[in-house]
Amino acid sequence: MNARKLNIFFPHLSSLLLLFIVAFFSTACATGGLTTSPPAAHPKAAATQAAVVVHIPAGPITYVALGASDAVGVGSNQPGSQGYVPLVAAHLPKGSHMINLGISGERLHNALSEELPIALSTSPELVTVWLVANDFVGGVPYDAYMHDLNILLGDLHANIHASLVMANLPDLTQLPAFANLAPAQKAQMLVQIKRWNAGIAITAAHYGVKLVDLFSHGSQLTAHPEYISGDGFHPSPAGYVQLAKIFWLAIQG
Asked: What is the count of structural domains for the chain?
């Protein structure tokens, strides 16, 4: 299988970023910037939809992955080959073609111009999307993220005939990178994770996208120290194996 590798790697979560995250949530708790109000249904999204079934043809397929550092494999021993994307691709029919568009540090808005056009040009049969953690911890407003998510999923749904699969946010509060947050800050962070995940689920259902619910698998990911790399944020090699298993179970299910 062939991979498009963008070698923009950030092997460690910088202290500056961590301080920014802590400061962000401290300010939010003090000012009410992180609201506890329930998420409103997206105006373009349907309230309910039948379960999405992913169809993988029997013969070789083209698999395209849109993502960030986790698609690249940051935190593993061999970024570019040990991320969840190549591990998912290993399950595909023999002769399948993998196109990994992951860019470390990527946010969804940038992916609209840097990853989406390539995905649309490749005529894939399977597309996975995991573009949310950088937006969330980077302070991107909820409404701005959901606007961009509608554009991304809408364009994929309208312009290619592929099974679409997207992952949400795991429970980031269990990661070592956020260990120094106060209990109140973690509680506010968890409220927002649930809010974002609710919006993602509604939007994914509207466009017929299979949801990989990483939050419901939190005990299998972020709560296991052996699944987290030394930077306290990205998966370890063992974590990527577990992550790929969760993706593949969703694809099969």
From this structure: 1
